[in-house]
Every structure is written in C-alpha cells, then in structure tokens.
Amino acid sequence: MKVLDHPFGDTNLKVVCEACGDLSIKAIDLANSPDSTEIRCRRYNAIRGTIADLRELARRATGEFEF
Ligand SMILES: [Zn+2]
Q1: CB burial class (10 A; 0-12, 13-18, 19+) of residue 9?
Q2: For the chain, domain boundaries
Q3: Rounded to whole angstroms, how far apart are CA atoms 54 and 51?
Q4: Whole-model pTM over 0.90
Q5: Helix (H, G, I), strand (E, B) or coil at 28
Q6: 50 Cα: distance to centroid of ligand 1 (angstroms)
Q7: Cβ neighbours around 25 below 10 Å, total
Q8: What separation in Å is there between the alpha carbon of 19 and the centre of ligand 1?
Q9: Ligand 1 center–CA 47 separation, angstroms
Q10: Ligand 1 center to 61 CA (angstroms)
Q11: How far apart are CA 64 and CA 6, in angstroms?
Q12: Mean predicted confidence (pLDDT) in 5-25
C-alpha cells in the first residue's frame, strides 16, 4: 500500500508501528468500512489508527494516493 511509504507528520495514523517498527497493516476494505474502523498492524495486531486517519492522510497528499 503506497501510503505507508510516505510518512506525513502530525496525523493520528501511525505509519510505523510502535510495537514492532513494521510498516505493514492488515488489509481492509476502505470502500465498505466506516471511518471508525481500526487499522491494525499486520504482525502484532497493534492499533495504528483508523480509516478516518488514513483518509486525512490522503487528503493532505493531494493527488498522490488513490482510494
Ligand atoms: Zn507492529
């Protein structure tokens, strides 16, 4: 997922997992999940943020991401 390759400062989304330092997140269905859906680390299941955080990140990076 491309968004994880671009850390953007002060979002609530943890681009890098605090538990294991990994960039991987579990696959989620962005189109069919509410903003409050938690995004979790693929390795340790630690909460990394929510879909709302991910969408906020995308808004800041105009034109760079596709959802
Ligand atoms: Zn982790």
Answers
A1: exposed
A2: 2-60
A3: 5
A4: no
A5: coil
A6: 15
A7: 22
A8: 5
A9: 8
A10: 24
A11: 10
A12: 79
| Cβ-based neighbours of 2, under 8 Å, separated by 6 or more | 64, 65
Quote the ligand 1 centre to 6 CA distance (angstroms). 17
Residue type, 14: K
Q: Provide the strand spans (E) within 1-67.
A: 38-40, 47-50
Tens of pLDDT, residues 22-66: 999 999 998 899 999 999 999 999 999 999 998 888 888 766 555
- Angle, vertex CA 23, rays to CA 40 and CA 14, nearest 5: 60
Separation of 16 CA from ligand 1 center, angstroms?
8
Phi and psi at residue 53, in whole multiples of 5°? Answer: -65, -40
